[in-house]
Design brief:
By secondary structure, the chain is of the alpha/beta class. It is built from five helices and twelve strands. The strands form four sheets. Strands 7, 8, 9, 10 and 12 form a five-stranded mixed beta sheet that branches.
């Protein structure tokens, strides 16, 4: 192709119209994409997260949703002096500036106190072992109650004055009183041992005296029946 012919193609009106149309399409697509991104990300639209801690759950969730937030209860806790259903924690924290549509995660106060399963420490461990294990699991342990038995051995556990058993569910708010042996034996459990060996037939014959002749005191011969 001669240079003059190649240059003459750039003077074609049709070529320039096509290039202009392509440029317009690219600009329109870019502007449309920008608007779409702004709409999706709520560009320029921000909201300050309110403080709903220690507030009732129901009314607070409605308020947050009306403000444009998405609310999700993702955990529960327990605070004894707060009513059930009270909001204990929120994320993001109060005062955080976020965009509309942001998810707010709430932690709600449970209706009942959580419980723990009593481990196998009764008649299976010493006082120190039981105390350490119970506290590690989260139990409240009060001063021990000493009872007759082997020193420092665990014989029972009381909750509110009642004996509990291994595997029982106990509130974390309850205090455990461990019954521990004091190293003394109850008088009612005493066992007396004598060195004298007792003939089991002694009691039967203790009132019967036999003379040298082999007869009893009465001089009468006893009659015996022999069973073959």
């Amino acid at each position: 192709m001669e240079p003059s012919v190649f240059i003459s193609k750039f003077k074609s009106r049709f070529l320039w119209l096509n290039l202009l149309a392509m440029a317009v399409v690219i600009v329109v697509m870019a502007i449309g994409l920008q608007f779409a991104m702004d709409f999706y990300t709520h560009h320029g639209e921000t909201i300050t997260v309110p403080d709903v801690r220690k507030q009732p759950c129901e009314g607070s969730i409605d308020m947050l949703e009306d403000m444009g937030f998405i609310v999700e209860v993702n955990d529960t806790g327990y605070v004894k002096n707060l009513p059930p259903g009270t909001i204990l924690m929120q994320l993001p924290l109060p005062g955080t500036v976020v965009k509309s549509g942001r998810t707010i995660y709430l932690t709600i106060n449970a209706t009942d106190s959580p419980t723990l399963t009593l481990p196998d420490v009764i008649d299976n461990s010493s006082w120190r072992e039981a105390e350490a294990r119970l506290k590690t699991l989260g139990f409240k342990v009060g001063p021990p109650q000493y009872v007759f038995g082997e020193k420092d051995w665990v014989y029972g556990i009381l909750v509110n004055g009642r004996n509990v058993t291994t595997g029982q569910k106990i509130s974390v708010e309850s205090t455990l009183i461990v019954q521990v042996g004091n190293g003394h034996r109850d008088a009612s459990d005493s066992v007396y041992v004598t060195d004298r060996q007792v003939d089991p037939f002694e009691e039967i014959y203790e009132d019967v005296s036999i003379d040298e002749g082999g007869s009893g005191d009465s001089g009468e011969k006893d009659d015996f029946e022999v069973i073959e």
